[in-house]
Design brief:
The radius of gyration is 20 Å and the shape is globular. The chain folds into 2 domains: 162 residues, Gcn5-related N-acetyltransferase (GNAT) (Aminopeptidase); 136 residues, Aminopeptidase (3-Layer(aba) Sandwich). A hairpin with a 2-residue loop joins β4 and β5. It is an alpha+beta fold. The N terminus is likely disordered. The chain contains 8 helices and 16 strands. The strands form 4 sheets. The protein has a 7-stranded mixed sheet, with helices on both faces. A 5-stranded mixed sheet has the order 12-13-14-16-15.
């Protein structure tokens, strides 16, 4: 693919877009450094063997843009959720010297047209940073829909090199369906209105029922991930039991010891007791974050908590729908004490 554009110091740029190959990996690492220095929170992006192994195993697939053999842009999909056919699209990067040439749009367009259909994925999700609107616009053009907002997810250190943010950066949750899937979802009474609004544009025929069941008499099944460089702890809870509150306390204790300041809990909307689970979370200052289509195979709901107040002045949102979702989240945050 050829691309011609103009920018100070650049003219007649010839751009090749394709799957990353083995010989491209050092250039991809330098692409990360051109934007983030050595401060990207997932340190595996600086390791050649990890990048190669991820692509060979289908765990992370990168589409890159090159000019004269130099990597100047990329987009990737990777497994980051419990359900193996749900992939995250992210790590869209454009070299600072090649901005405003629609390189990211072309990488994403090529990936959606040529690469993703052959991966067997059923759903895509993504986190578009909210210190600018470029990625948000690109995703919406490709058929994504907004499903939530993660307050203060990304650490300020990730943007130190570019000085594009004064503090931590929020992300907009987006989702795109490749294989529609209908399911019965239980809506917590507290968030019925919010969830129905979110599903108004991404419902392939789900059945919604009120969540009125108590917690079952069994142990909670869940897992924990801590991203030390980002200060983020994530608790996935596909099956909550009567010990949910003590389970949560154990997870938070471990997260605090690892200096986490952002806590996220993923609950299962196919659980009849999810309404009770939400109330337990709110008791501990968690608040609404949005919907997570196909997170567990079935859909999930995000609850979030932070130890410091977010920098709301730094949030830039493109769509009216995203602004409405932020309003709902902040209203719940203020009422929960989060």
């Amino acid at each position: 693919m050829d691309f011609s554009g103009t920018k100070p110091g650049l003219s007649g740029l010839s751009l090749e877009i394709r799957l990353m190959q083995k010989e491209d990996v050092p250039g991809v690492i330098e692409l990360y450094r051109s934007v983030y220095g050595d401060e990207y929170p997932v340190k595996s992006v600086y390791d050649i063997e990890t990048i190669l192994n991820q692509q060979e195993k289908g765990e992370m697939i990168r589409v890159i843009a090159l000019t004269k053999g130099k990597a100047v842009g990329q987009v990737a999909v990777y497994r980051s959720a419990p359900y193996e056919k749900l992939y995250e699209e992210g790590q869209g990067i454009v070299h600072p010297e090649y901005r405003n040439l629609k390189i990211n749009d072309q990488c994403m367009g090529y990936a959606h047209e040529k690469i993703y259909p052959g991966l067997g994925l059923e759903q895509l999700w993504g986190e578009a940073v909210c210190n600018h609107i470029y990625m948000q616009k690109a995703c919406l053009k490709l058929g994504y829909t907004e499903t939530g907002i993660e307050l203060d997810l990304m650490p300020a250190s990730s943007y130190k090199k570019e000085q594009s943010s004064r503090g931590r950066v929020c992300t907009l949750l987006l989702s795109k369906t490749f294989k529609p899937f209908t399911q019965t979802l239980y809506l917590p009474q507290r968030y019925e209105e919010e969830l129905k609004y979110i599903y108004s544009t991404c419902n392939p025929g789900h059945i919604f029922l009120p969540s009125v069941a108590p917690l079952p008499h069994k142990k909670t099944r869940g897992s924990r991930e801590i991203y030390k460089g980002a200060g983020v702890a994530r608790f996935a809870i596909p099956e909550a039991g009567a010990d949910l509150e003590s389970f949560l306390a154990q997870q938070e204790e471990s997260a605090l010891k690892a200096d986490a300041c952002i806590f996220q809990a993923y609950l299962n909307l196919s659980s009849p007791s999810v309404g009770v689970e939400v109330e337990i979370m709110r008791k501990h200052n968690y608040f609404f974050g949005g919907a997570l289509p196909r997170w567990f195979g079935q859909d999930g709901i995000l609850m979030q908590k932070m130890l410091n107040e977010p920098d709301l002045n730094g949030i830039q949102l493109y769509s009216e729908r995203a602004k409405k979702i932020l309003e709902m989240i902040l209203n719940d945050k203020n009422s929960s004490g989060g």
